[in-house]
# Entry
Amino acid sequence: MLIKEIDYGTPAPEQPRMCGSSKCSCAAGVTPEVHADTPMVTLEIDGNSVTVPQGTSIMRAAMQMGTQIPKLCATDSLEAFGSCRLCVVEIEGRRGTPASCTTPVEAGLKVWTQTGKLAKLRRNVMELYISDHPLDCLTCAANGDCELQDMAGAVGLREVRYGFDGANHFDKAKDQSNPYFTFDPTKCIVCSRCVRACEEVQGTFALTIDGRGFASMVSPSEAQPFLESECVSCGACVQACPTATLMENSIIEAGQPEHSVVTTCAYCGVGCSFKAEMRGDEVVRMMPYKDGKANHGHSCVKGRFAWGYTTHKDRITKPMIRAKITDPWKEVSWEEAINHAASEFKRIQKKYGRTSVGGITSSRCTNEETYLVQKLIRAAFGTNNVDTCARVCHSPTGYGLATTLGTSAGTQDFDSVEEADVIMVMGANPTDAHPVFGSRMKRRLREGAKLIVIDPRRIDLVKNPHIAADYHLALRPGTNTAMLNAFAHVIVTEGLVDEDYVRERCDLAEFDRWRAFAADPKNSPEAVEGFTGVKAADVRAAARLYATGGNAAIYYGLGVTEHSQGSTTVMGMANIAMATGNIGHNGAGINPLRGQNNVQGSCDMGSFPHELTGYRHLSTDAVRQQFEKDWGVTLDPEPGLRIPNMLDAAIDGTFMGIYIQGEDIAQSDPNIQHVIAGLSAMECVVIQDIFLNETANYAHVFLPGSTFLEKDGTFTNAERRINLVRRAVKPKAGYADWEVTMLLSNALGYPMNYTHPSEIMDEIARLTPTFQNVSFELLEKSPVQWPCNDKAPEGTPIMHMNGFVRGKGRFMITEYIPTEEKVGPRFPLLLTTGRILAHYNVGAQTRRTDNVAWHPEDVLEMHPHDAEDRGIHDGDTVSIASRVGETTLRVKVSDRMQPGVVYTTFHHFGTGANVITTDYSDWATNCPEYKVTAVQVRPTNRPSEWQSQYYKQREATRRIEATAAE
Amino acid sequence: METLIRMANQIGDFFNSYSEVEAVPEIAIHIRKFWDPRMRKAIMAHIADHQGEGLKPRVLQALKSMPS
Ligand code: SF4
Ligand code: SF4
Ligand code: SF4
Ligand code: FES
# Structure
């Protein structure tokens, strides 16, 4: 069945996140459809009485009782505009025919939605529209899904008196520059839904209506083609367009879908809900789901359009093995591959000891799959050598927030941003890395919230249509902790501490100590100015704004965590949030913006070597025994190895076999040459992935993985929301990833017999207090946010509402310790890394879609001064070298950078940006210090030695033996 | 070995502004909780064989006091 959400025509009237009634469910942090104390209005429509919240439009009220008033320019994702005049109604006692989309309800109104007069008016309107619209409905891509067509039917249009030979727009050319959608101006009815969607929903302001009256036409900024315009290809305009004017190319090619399933985007930590719309066993469109709690019907270019990789020809669908990594791969049966892997692991454990093997869980796979992999490692291997790629991104979040507040997760839901008065963004680039949340943030900023950006680079948010940061503190990379200490200094010494809050909720001895530390003049903005490079006056003003501007919310990203003081900086944020009373209510909080779709989930699921599900240390006997009983094994009480330690141990000869599900550590982890050395030292590397990734170059067994469209399960997004992933198509290789893990476990002699991921979730719920009440059945009804247990049966949108999870909030002393990675005469520049909108992490998926139209290669951004000093011009190829390695890429000269700092992304393996990043890491969690590397840049005209060597070797290790035709 | 020494010292540095009575057990607990046994063994061996060369005093003290 094709799922179609109801379009109420206009948005629900805005209501506060909290009302005054203690009976309302919002008192428990759950926003109800209508608050208990919302004023309601009763009116009569077509003789029926209907009661709706004050501020509702007549159109919406009618739809709530099931009557659809004809409309064209209105849709409920956009504010009413009142331009088409198709939605007119008659109101008893009022003159004229008001538009129902722009007229709010009033008590006692008597409204008629269909009268002879209205019918005539509507037919006239339609007649005008149709006279300038080509009548090729039968061959139109929107046939069956066109609101103009529907309305012609609804108003009973039978003739068009004006004829079609008058002035029209039939000869306008199509714009096909965007790889994913086509703009066909001949079909435009100038309803401006696209323009408003781009403004209101996406916040990009790329479209305008050019000209006036009959000549008016939709056009991307300055009449450019879409691809060259400001457009970020989010698709909101395509979705809003009622006609075939803006149309997905996939629909133009395949036709309209006939059924759909609701699922969750597998790209970033926003976790947008989508309808996977299909024809037969083929996905033809991904349509953001209006009831999706994270995205409310919006999406970005990745989730909506970049799913072509799921059917890309590079997908590996047969298991493969080989004896040496220099041998070509040999395709084998599942049975042979699994048995080979299992016997190798057993052989290695026999030879080198029980703890000589381990594995890595994936932040891209489902919770159930991640849980199974760590279970396999702990129960079947009998070691705790399990880790996850969250190590390289957000492990400091877990450590820092657990130490200060008591939970390893962000404190708010995404909706909370709508109540924020001050938004502080630190080391994150939401418009590129978390676009849908970025759009919501921009909407709130346009409504007047204040913005503080702490980032070395001038990210898009700093200056955006209708938005400007109040403060952009462009600090030197590596000085985050010093910056937050300066904030703390201002808060403490200028009397901005929320004393009541601190007294009630925090550990006072720790607080007093922290207050004394913060007040130390060495932490004053003036004292740190020398190394942060930010004017003290600006820091003071920003700190005052944060402390006194109302609800203040912190959003942060990898620019905070990927430092040697990552955990310290996270604690620093918790400190200032606690000191100013900004945790535990709407509109405030501390929120990590998670990189990958299921980073939160993979951490929750016990992927770290020292803890079981729900962040419980495995040396705690009660916890371990609970698992031992359920799993029927004895568990090792000692913590296992982390990824970097596994690689070290491999080089030392004590770690020889690894099972890696859905991760590409040879590309994503720092100091690649070290990673490669570690992998090459191992005797059995088993990779489970959808493509031959870079790590597979060093593998002996390859098990084909499945994409998110091919399996059931759950992802947990950055707001702790557990979203269902539903299978839309069959797994290409025959098995979903959780089934493959089961096969391996069974072959190792530890039986697993789940028939559906829901059974795995039941086991997780049984063993994890914060997941106690979670089940697929509950999630079918509503995707809840953990903790979800008897204390919070509907989940927990906002944490720490009535006190901190750990008891009393703990202030930590966060002394600034400069990183050991310092610039010097040989390496005078600081390199920092990031990501861009069109691509995702190492780009294995997005590189295999048309998203390459936006970002065909990694480039190095550099300030004009630094470029000039080195005789480098925009577009030149340069070599960039650090203490550990060297690579080449192209330069983009840009004043977004501050002098002395350069920036690049790491989406393409050809650049291997991680060849130059060092293996310095966070003190508490070993999260690598990606964000600071001292480098030198010089012009060059040939690939670095590493690159040419790597390419040669890459070719040699990626051959697949031709199999005889079967 | 160098990596382990650097890691241990980094942990020690975080607790710099805490008093010795607090810092030493905190450092010990952190290492006990997060380090795999073979890493702990290696650094203990380094202490036995090279008097913990390169380790900062508090870190050394913490490691010596750490229950294995
Ligand atoms: S695709 Fe998105 S950014 Fe581009 S014009 Fe449409 S709404 Fe605007
Ligand atoms: S392109 Fe579509 S949404 Fe935009 S004005 Fe034309 S018909 Fe309306
Ligand atoms: S990539 Fe992120 S923001 Fe974009 S659609 Fe997917 S979950 Fe949403
Ligand atoms: S729908 Fe109300 S004026 Fe267009």
